[in-house]
Amino acid sequence: MRTIKRPVNRQTAELGLATLRAGNFLSVISVFFGIAAAFAPGSLEQRIGSLLFFGLIPAAGFHAGGIVLGRLLAFSSELCEVIATLFFRWLALIVKKVMTLASQCVSYAAAKYLMVPAHTIVSRVSSACRLIDRGCQHADRAIFELSCLLIRSGARFILRMQAWRNMRARRSVYRVARTRPRSNGST
Q: Do 125 and 88 form a contact (C-beta atoms < 8 A)?
């Protein structure tokens, strides 16, 4: 079994590299968040937990997500191109067989009249090829926008969790301050 090696499409490679760069950038940012969270006051266990929860785990997720998403985008783009190519090769083969069959069964005058619809079909096939190519580009763009939306939503969720944690810590400090008895100055 022979495999055909196709050259890598430049747009596909750029899209994959851009996704990988974005994942790496977000992983570096989350590591910085984790380091900053580790310097917050608390016990050693809390600091290590903050480093893992806000730094290393999201960093690993962003890095792996960038790799997987980059390869998924490259694969989907290549798959769209391969499917479109195979479809139009198959369609051209069918049209050729129909024309051969039609030319054997009918006279020259009738075949001459069939050539006009055949040219129309071929011109429509080329316009359909352009439409499918645009559709593949739209699909790539939609997948990329979905990944950006997921990354943005994840970052918002992490920020909300941090804000909720800080607000909860402030409330507990406020409650402790309210429950302490005030001294009247007399001992």
A: yes
Q: Which amino acid is at 53?
A: F
Q: What is the domain partition of the chain in residue ranges? A: 11-174
List the structure tokens of 36: 């900053």
Find where tokens 């909860």 sit: 168
Residues 6+ apart with CB under 8 A from 73: 12, 15, 16, 19, 140, 143, 144, 147
pTM higher than 0.85, yes or no? Answer: no
User: For residue 4, is it left (φ>0), alpha (ψ between -120 and 50) or beta?
Assistant: beta
Model confidence pLDDT, tens digit, residues 91-137: 778 877 777 776 666 666 665 665 666 666 666 666 766 777 777 67
DSSP codes of every residue in the chain: ---PPPPPPHHHHHHHHHHHHHHHHHHHHHHHHHHHHHTSSS-HHHHHHHHIIIIIHHHHHHHHHHHHHHHHHHHHHHHHHHHHHHHHHHHHHHHHHHHHHHHHHS-HHHHHHHHHHHHHHHHHHHHHHHHHHHHHHHHHHHHHHHHHHHHHHHHHHHHHHHHHHHHHHHHHHHHHHHHSPPP-S--
Residue 19 CB contacts under 8 Å (≥ 6 apart), including other chains: 66, 69, 70, 73, 144, 147
pLDDT tens digits, one per residue of 148-173: 777 888 888 888 888 888 887 777 76
